[in-house]
Amino acid sequence: MRVITNYKFLSEIDQGATIAMGNFDGxxxxxxxxxxxxxxxxxxxxxxVLTFDPHPREFFNPKQLNFKLMTAETKQNRLEKIGVExxxxxxxxxxxxxxxxxxxxxxxxxxxxxxxxVVVGSDFRFGKGRSGDTETLTELGKELGFxxxxxxxxxxxxxxxxSTRIRKLLSDGFPRAAAKMLGxxxxxxxxxxxxxxxxxxxxxxxxNLSIDxxxxxxxxxxxxxxxxxxxxxKGTYQGATSIGKKPMFxxxxxxxxxxxxxxxxxxxxxxxxxxxxxxxRPEMKFNELELMINQIEADCIDVSSLLxxx
Length: 310
Description:
Layout: E1 2-4, E2 18-21, H1 29-41, E3 47-53, H2 56-60, H3 72-81, E4 86-91, H4 94-97, H5 101-112, E5 117-121, H6 134-144, E6 147-151, E7 155-156, E8 159-160, H7 163-171, H8 175-182, E9 186-191, H9 198-202, E10 207-209, E11 220-228, E12 235-244, E13 255-260, E14 271-282, H10 289-308
Parallel strand pairs: 1-4, 2-3, 2-5, 3-4, 5-6
Antiparallel strand pairs: 7-8, 9-14, 10-13, 11-12, 11-14, 12-13
Helix pairs in contact: 5-6, 7-8
């Protein structure tokens, strides 16, 4: 998949795609329906996705932190897996935000990308002040020479399937219900970073990932599937993952640390993808270290049993 961050001065090889356009945070089943419709709209054109980084919500309200379901890198990985050939990941800036719906369409979609078709969800809004909607886009497509298709909103139990509902499910500790809406496990991806190495001294060494900027799931212990994406240990493993603030040690910055079952090896600097499968228990504070070690051992038994039954 080719990742393009600037719509200006593109070569012909990067133009002429059929494009699904939106923020696509989480790439849930509703987002996938938009992308599938784009794939079908022009059979002989490459499939592209147009999205923005940072997320417009993040740009307009920088104090509203930790809401994204995935990083830009995770989004790239997921889009590549579902067959997207071009990712136009445009920087959302003051200048881009100031473009009217017409100017955005003319400068980005027509002159920059030379899109042959554009597909959006029925609730899509664009242009300065969110002034453009699907009707605006349809009329501009007729005038400027590209096809427009509108994907219907998907419903789950009578309600709109949305990233907001998925965030709520994760906050409440229901990753399987979230996965049903996503069409895939919710994942936390990133580089393994240096931790405090307490797990190693306890006999349970962990791989630590930052969750800075991401929507935090319910704090506690999860049964997880771990894909090691780089290095000599590439593969899929079972794990017990702790997400939270380590109340036993009085820490305040949320983190994600994973003990990989039946694994030995140095993973510092490698890239991991951690799929949340089941919430096991909430965070606990122990009076004695031995009680904590006993609980970790019990957690690993529960996790192994659960994952073996998948």
